[in-house]
Amino acid sequence: MKCELVDVFAREKLNGNGLTIFSDCDELCSKEMLAWAQEMRQFESIFLQVKADEYHARIFTVEEELGFAGHPLLGLTYHLHERFGSDSEHEWTVHINGRPLRLSSKKTDSEFIATMSQGRPFYSYSLSEDEAQVLYSSLNLTKPDGLSSGAEVISTGLPYVILPVRSQLENISFNVRDLSPLIEPYGGKFLYVLDVDTLEGRTWDNKGLFEDVATGSAAGPVSAYLFKHGFVGDGEVIIKQGRFLGRPSEVKVRVVTCSSEIEDLQVSANVVKVADIAILC
């Protein structure tokens, strides 16, 4: 088994969102993958398995396996380009949870850019004011005055409850032990607090123990929310995250539309390699 560390949404090492990539690990079972993810203590770790010349990935947090996540797949693109690529630009198909995802990579003398096509967003639920108020209260927040758009559950593979705010991100504190029982009835997996004026956001594991530096899986749903409610148009959207962890990051999303409907959400990231790690087995 091989292991390497990269930083995603970063132009320099020790910035952005760190990721551990495991490869040559076809023999690992789910229990062993979870144990290695817990050992590395990253927000997420990704395991690459090559089967019949196809690339298959599995993603784990320290608590569970995820059916989809953004920054691990973007970081994996660096590994694929480095190990299997021969040109400056490549297209890749990676299978995750039975779903093929399109990824692309571009390497120049000065940077490496990974892009993921998340496809069309799925709008699954709009929370009532009373339902949303429970979530605001759980995070020491209040619904901002004069904001017509409410909380929604949106997915491009992983369903997020998008909770809109205005200039309250620094006030957030968890008043509940676990958000899961509050968001699961609406089909949400995680909650993302979004400042709709500054396009900055914050998200955590549902117990509030780990805040994420930059969240690729949320970038598509966040951009879809902003587009739907008229905060942005088509073209490039830049979402800011990670400031409260001392690792400010920018997630770039291109909103591709046809007849005023979103056709694709393309999430891009700079990726830098940090280390090759020797595994003692």
From TrEMBL:
MF annotations from Gene Ontology: isomerase activity
Domain of life (superkingdom): Bacteria
Active site, per annotation: 44
InterPro entries: Phenazine_PhzF-like
Gene Ontology terms: cellular component: cytoplasm
Family indicated by similarity: Belongs to the PhzF family.
Name the record gives this protein: PhzF family phenazine biosynthesis protein
Organism the protein comes from: Bisbaumannia pacifica
